[in-house]
Write a structure and sequence with these properties.
34% of the residues lie in helices and 25% in strands. The chain has 445 residues and is an alpha+beta fold. It has 4 domains: 7-91, no CATH class; 109-202, 2-Layer Sandwich (VC0802-like); 205-223 and 231-318, Alpha-Beta Plaits, CATH 3.30.70; 324-432, Alpha-Beta Plaits, CATH 3.30.70.3190. It starts with 11 loop residues before the first helix and ends in a 13-residue tail after the last strand. It binds zinc ion (ZN).
Length: 445
Amino acid sequence: MKSLVKEEDWNCSYVHRKYRKSIGASWEKMDKGGVKGILKIARKIFEEGAVCDRCIGRQFSTLCSGMGNLARGRSIRNFLLLCREEDEDAFDDLHLDYDEVCWVCGGFFDEIDEWVERCVERSQLYEYDTFLVGTHISGLLSETEEYLWERVGASYAESIKADINREVGKKLSGLTEKEVDFSRPDITFILDIPSDEVKLGIRPVFVYGRYKKYERGIPQTRCGYTGDIYNESVEEIIAKPMLHAFKGEGEKFHGAGREDIDARMMGNGRPFIMEIRDPKRRIVNLKKIEEEIEINRGKTVEVDELRFTDKREVSSLKSLRADKTYKCEVEFEKEVKEEEIRDALKHIKGRKINQRTPTRVLHRRADLVREREIYDVELVAYKKKRAALRIDCECGTYIKELITGDFGRTRPNLSDLLGVKSSVKELDVIRFGRYENMDLKIGDF
Ligand SMILES: [Zn+2]
């Protein structure tokens, strides 16, 4: 029988060294039965048909892990070839030569360079530093592996999936000089063997920032707002230059809560995270985006503190229970005295109030009574039927209802305390975050 084994592999000491390295190193862990076990497994596999070095080596992956499946497989084959040389009859039924297609992988590993090239081609449009390879194997490959493991066991084996992922990953990394990242890869290449194509999973880009809204009537997002409005939302204003810069296909706006459409967002601004989906660019000058928004929007919406972040910060942003400071302009149905207002505010300042879900948001929130603390209230301006208040309060306080009472659903409330119907004329968030003393100057109104 003509052997296809390379000349140098026939060198006995070479084979011996390889054999010692692959099997001998684990000698102490195994008794003679163990070695016999390895030979038994190898024999059974070669009895079924020809097997490539990688597929035979993979069945012993947990032994001599630093060696690699290819070298490990070649060592085992060479050892069996030596045995056949010694006793041809006993080993003649084994398909040890390299002249047939591997029955385990169907020759898949011969095509591995093609798959690597396809990955490179598919990712050409994308900017990325890190990647990961995943494989969706065909039914035939997984059935063959199942059959093999049923026949010979899988005590030392690694799955074909893991082998493909690692091999393609190694070659791809060598070719592209990009790094493999198991936790947060920029691109995940899925080798979809059944459909014979490479699919891409692109990690979104997350950008944190704070926005200020200096004009009333701008909704935070288009989503969820059904009113008759023509203004672009804060989300759209921020998304437009970002989608352009990152060459993204879509976006999702994550806000740390939201203010009413008719309330302004001033002071230090409200934190948000913009998620850009399917970005083709990842290296973007965020300062330029801030400037672009400023140029496009004049002084209506402003964005600053832009920085890159990741998905984990979205959940912490969403669960942020930030206190707020409001500037609230109140209108009274009839004239009230300044002293009356000051007296009424004493019953709110430093108090916990009970707010039953406002009628205006009942359609989207459960009807519950919530307790909220009003840390401080200050009368900063007064003029007959109007007053300006600064209110420092706990996250989730409904200011409009604190003033109107919302048909008694918020208690105490300013209208009841004054005995005069009061309503909110204008509302601004002037500080997002921890309550602290601050000066507020409000001009004439
Ligand atoms: Zn194979």
